[in-house]
Amino acid sequence: MKQLIKTLYFCFLLFATFSVFCQNQSKNHIINLPDHVAFIENDHFKQGSFGNPQGDSLTLNNFYLRQNQKPLMPIMGEFQYSRYPESEWESELLKMKASGIEIIGFYDFWIHHEEKQGEFRFDKNLDVRAFLKLIEKHNLQAVARIGPWVHGETRNGGFPNWFVEKYQKSGFDRVSQNGELVPEIKVWFEALAKQFDGLYYKDGGPIIGIQLDNEVRSNGPRSWGYEYLKSLKKTAQEVGMDVPYYMVTGWPGTDLPEDEVLPLWGGYPAAPWTGNSKPLSANKLYNFVTDRRDKTIGNDIIEYSSKNFEDNTPLYKHPFLTVEMGGGIQDTYHRRPVIEPKDLTGLIYTRLGVGANMLGYYIYHGGQHPLSWEQTYSTQESKSSKYPYPNDYPMISYDFQAPLSEYGFMQPSFAYFKRIHQFIKSYESDLAPMIATIPEDNPKEAGNTDQLRYSIRSKDNSGFLFINNYARDQELSTHKNVSFKLQNAAVNLRIPETGGITFPSGTQAIMPFNQDLEGVNLVYATAHPLTILNGTIPLYVYYSLNGVDTEFKLNTYGIATIETDKAKVEQNGDSYLLTRFKPGKDCIITITKSDGAQFKILVLSEEESLQAYVFNLDGKQTLLLNQHLSFYNAETKELNLRSQGVSNYSMYSFPALDLTASNCKEEGIEGMFTKYQINLPETKITSIPFKEQTRTEIYQSYLDSLNGQTPNRPDYPIHFDNNKPFKTFTFFIPEILPKYVSDFLIQVDYRGNTAAVYKEGILVADDYFNGKPMILSHNRLNTGNELALQITPLMAKSSIFFEPEVIMDFAEKKHVDLISIEAIPVYELILEK
To answer: Which helix (H) or strand (E) holds 444?
Structure first.
């Protein structure tokens, strides 16, 4: 027995030693780069007018979109005008633009505009024409998603109640057979077309695309969905909707009328509409998979066929364009996910890495479901409508954990999206035509946490290496001593030149190879490209990746000198190798070419890269480093700086700012940047007192009736009722905003099941508890009157999914706890000419 134990122990040691040995050996990945691929002109695609009065054109081939024949990688974000106050539209559009959004996508919710048949409203926050005028004013573009059915977590999927009563036979019935449309749909399209008149791209306006309906099952000619989509397009054109691109969602069908419409795709980090409260399976979209569908989208109502799109042809007839990459995710009553920034960007890295050539986000800016015109029902999706939907969403909140919240507050993912957008806009003309290669040694299964997830996009022997060593709810392995060998008839390149790269768990990276820098060949860099400033001396900005040694290799041809004191420079034959970087605002490499011209390379830290904004300030391309929200109005030439709870901070600009304000002082130079100190009068965070008004006997009786089980449906009303058996509190918020404060972020730290806020007796805000505080806005709620807050109890037993880290002890005995309400000032400083 002892001998057996010794033998087993020896085997264990041998296995452990071998495992450590293997982990520390260099893993060399060999990638065979593809030869040139001829793109297919989309002559088959029946698009509308694609030129504008300025002489510009929007066209496409089967791989990318083009403006004036130049490859484009547009970035689109969803912002729904009818779910947001019209007085705030302009500032919110500017915030989106500051983060790199170029196209504003939006649903036109039929139920919002024609609640009563024949009575259309396009006033106040329903004034889509005014919204489009603001988009045009700030040099943005628009894609209108006109329905008639849109879903969007909306009552009846966006159909008005009267339409449902008149025609529908089920909640997802599109009221169409053999491509025949009921006349009311054309009336709806005509009403929209009147608002859009003169604002199409052909008129010099912002509307470049129309999306028809949403999530239609189209299974080829003569299927109902195929004929329905063709009829919708024909009807849109008949009423005057003439645009370069007619679009549809590519899922769930297998065969769209692809000569008529462009399919758009999507992917989300979680699926809170899933009909259970169990942990979800690993998400395949964190892998570099070429299937364009996320089969979790709409899986509450959609059954996907087994046919795989990627089996059709090596190249699609249309480019890989997305419309519903998750900008966040919305909580449902039965599932309460909490999303982190890398949960979202992980999907972006893999979609870019397999060839996506447009990023479209749903939602990019949160909003709120409006109540019906007479405030009798909410317009959110719920199980209580005529044809019950699978999910209950909050009646008001449509925050979506988006980069910009339902109140316009910047959320953590904003900086991460902004950073990847800066890369895309600097390199789109190179990147868009690049073909994707997904090497065979990528993991095949979503649950594989050990193999490296990577891809290559390349064209004419140059390209980018994509790494995604991150997946939501999975701990991916750290990869040590990794190298890549890129080869074809013209290329034989090893990255790095010697040794290997370590990719810590969580790394998301793009690394260039054979990149042209002003006529000098960057053989490779193990830093992430960020942006390019095309000033008198061009500036190429990169950032160092945490845990990854930064290394640049450049060909000597065309270089006279390289100057830097922040990296080690070695010449070896026909190349320079730069190592031992000290990234930061002063990590500058100045390269003088043989002809005397110069360009510079700046290597920031990963933390600094998240602070980066690129603005065209009065015609001057400017790199700003600011950890807080910044946005620029080119019309007024005002730079708006907003910070949540921080009145004094530093920011940095290259070149120096021409804009000034008395509270912004220049404080010298750090590297390439001029430093500025912002000092605003401090407004202390205010603790808001509250008073409990619970009807104790009614509440206790209700608790007893639950028998320890949380209700399966939300139960708070639209109109305040103090006889409801919930915990009830009243409070006031500060009435007056101090100078230099644009708003107060009201943070309600509570424990419970749901929370609802009432203003003058009407529901104005709500929240499904997910472990995080409820956020409100002073500007939306301030009337000087008392506000009421009702919190429903969470019991020990429930059919609700919560993230594992949410502390649930209170549900055993306390059930509801209001810990604090705090008013956090949102400071504002405007710099101007």
So the answer is: none
Angle at 440 between CA 437 and CA 441, to 5 degrees: 120
pLDDT single digits (tens) 518-562: 999 999 999 999 999 999 999 999 999 999 999 999 999 999 999
Closest CA to 405 of 800, 787, 780, 784: 780
Strands (E) across 46-196 are located at: 58-60, 65-67, 70-72, 75-78, 103-107, 141-147, 176-177, 180-181
Tokens of 805: 């880290």
Task: Record the pTM.
Answer: 0.95
For 663, which DSSP code?
Answer: T
| Mean pLDDT of all residues in 339-346 | 98
Rounded-to-integer distance, Cα 93 and Cα 762, Å: 28
Half-sphere exposure of 204 (CA within 13 A, CB side): 4
**Domain residue spans of the chain:** 74-427, 511-609, 613-644+648-679, 687-827
Kindly write down the DSSP assignment for every residue of 315-347, as one continuous string. Answer: S-SS--EEEEEESS-PPPSSEE----HHHHHHH
Question: pLDDT per residue over 213-238, tens digit each?
Answer: 999 999 999 999 999 999 999 999 99
For residues 677 and 648, is the Cβ–Cβ distance under 8 A? yes
CB atoms within 10 A of CB 588: 18
Residue 71: Cβ within 10 Å count: 20
Alpha helices, H only, 542-677: 606-609
Sign of CA dihedral 469, 475, 481, 482: negative
Given a contact cutoff of 8 angstroms between Cβ atoms, the answer to whether 615 and 657 are in contact is no
> Are the C-beta atoms of 192 and 235 separated by less than 8 Å?
no
Candidates 78, 69, 158, 162; CA nearest to 116 is: 162
Could you give the angle at which helices 183-196 and 128-137 cross, rounded to 10 degrees? 40
- Choose among 765, 91, 748: nearest CA to 368: 765
The class (CATH top level) of 687-827 is mainly beta
Q: Which helix (H) or strand (E) holds 673?
A: strand 673-679
User: Cα–Cα distances in Å, from 769 out to 140, 691, 811, 815, 832?
Assistant: 36, 21, 12, 12, 41
Q: Which residues of 371-391 are buried (b: 16+ CB within 10 A; e: fewer)?
A: beeeeebbbbbbeebeeebbb
H or E, element range at 282: none
Pick the CATH number of 511-609 from 2.102.20.10, 1.20.58.760, 3.50.50.60, 3.40.50.1100: 2.102.20.10
Q: Is residue 186 a contact partner of residue 237, using CB atoms and an 8 Å limit?
A: no
Q: Which two tokens stand for residue 395?
A: 């009646």
> What is the spatial distance between Cα 448 and Cα 450, in angstroms, rounded to a whole number?
6
Structure tokens at 478: 């750290």
Tokens of 573: 């034959």
Instruction: Return the number of other C-beta atoms located less than 10 Å from residue 5's C-beta.
Output: 9
Residue 575 burial class via C-beta count within 10 angstroms: exposed 0-12, middle 13-18, buried 19 and up = middle
Q: Are 291 and 309 in contact (CB under 8 A)?
A: yes
Residue 59 neighbours by CB distance under 10 Å:
18
Q: Which of 343, 346, 352, 347 is nearest to 456 (CA)?
A: 352
Question: pLDDT, tens digit, for every residue of 158-207?
Answer: 999 999 999 999 999 999 988 999 999 999 999 999 999 999 999 999 99
Which residue is it, tokens 């447009």? 358
The interaxial angle of helices 341-353 and 413-431, nearest 10 deg, is: 10
Compute how many other C-beta atoms are within 10 angstroms of the C-beta atom of residue 291: 14
Tokens linked to 372: 């019906």
DSSP classification of residue 370 = P
CATH 3.40.1360.10 matches 74-427:
no
